Amino acid sequence: MLLDRMNVPKTVLVAEDDASDAFLLQRAFETAGLSCSLLRVTDGQEALDYLSGAKGYSDRQKYPLPDLLLLDLKMPRMGGFEVLHWLQRSREFSLLPTVVLSSSGLDEDRAKAHKLGSRAYYVKPTAFSDLVSLVLEMNAKWLGLPTTEPLETGLAGR
What we know:
The protein is α/β, with parallel strands linked by helices.
């Protein structure tokens, strides 16, 4: 039986070790008016465990496969480049839209991420309003979620 993905909420897996960055990303999705399931893992190894259904992530009702992976590069245990390499070699996940969100603006990092299959590479914005704009751009490219009226917050950089 085929599952009708139109009636299932979209899932975004966020591999981010910094709790503050993860919180701001969640707030940006909310501020942008996007309704989806945003799930966080804190390092690359946990991302692979989640994707492969290992170590407590086997329940796909509770831990659905993501429609988009947002990936930090510099994380403990296993970094983003290793995750990209694993995804590239995987039959099941080689086509998973993966976007790097990193504090590194190095051209070498950008080139390596693209070579390993990242769909896009963004340097984490410093202004919250720029992060909201980035979330809306990612939605338009990879999620296609309808937007509700964006929230006004005092967090937006003015």
